[in-house]
Amino acid sequence: MSTDDLFKVEKHDHVAWFILNNPEKRNAMSLAFYRGLVEHFSNFDKDPDVRVVVIKAEGKSFTAGTDLEEAAALGGEGGADDRDRLNRILLDLQEGVNAIENCRKPVIAAIHSHCLGGGLDMLCACDIRIADRTAVFSIRETRIGLIADIGTLQRLPHIIGQGFTRELAFTGRDFKAEEAFNIGFVTKVCLDRNELYKEADKTASMIAGCPPLAVQGTKDVINFSRDHDVPAGLQYVAQKNITPLLSEDTTEAMTSFMEKRKPVFKGK
Predict the structure, then answer these.
(1) 54 and 159 assigned to the same domain
(2) pTM for this predicted structure
(3) pLDDT digits (tens, 9 = 90+) for 125-178
(4) Are 120 and 100 in contact (CB under 8 A)?
(5) 222: containing domain
């Protein structure tokens, strides 16, 4: 299946809605799926008209996770060549999820129903996660004899802490929207999908209404500071902030405030 069959993209008011569109397979994450993440998020990153991306999904589930039927067919006889091939495949899958985090534009996930295994890897690379009350999450790999290997174990501790991460990863148990909110994995829990998408659109619109260079620079600094100590983070932001300080958008923000009108930001 081509990546064109797996996703839909809708754009309006500087917001790109990235829609998982394989409901018949519960949006299972195939090799083509991961390749599609690289392709689409690279395009979002380069598109000056896109300031925010929202991920949502068609069908009963957000995603059932990595396509296990396809994954089972990737095995070989266990020789050195098979091990090397599988290692390269895993690195390619990781690049799919990395593309979300590496996209300069903030990414919001709007989750309903099941989001399991590889789906959690994908969510951990997003900037903001919002769920409806039907959402169910799981680091499912442990329950089928595997180690989560697409980014959850590296990113989730920075989101919810070591204790919660280890308990959820070791048990592989399901956790629902309310618990996800209580441990800080999602920032809001909505009544239903209609409210979920309204909330995601509201949050995306607020972000899109801010100067894009400042928003993108803020994401960059947050990610850098997560992976470095405080002095390095402070030095980095001092250099990074020079661009927005000298931007046309900062001048527009000051001018519009003085003139008591809504600012018009152009990302320049």
Answers:
(1) yes
(2) 0.91
(3) 999 999 999 999 999 999 999 999 999 999 999 999 999 999 999 999 999 999
(4) no
(5) 212-259
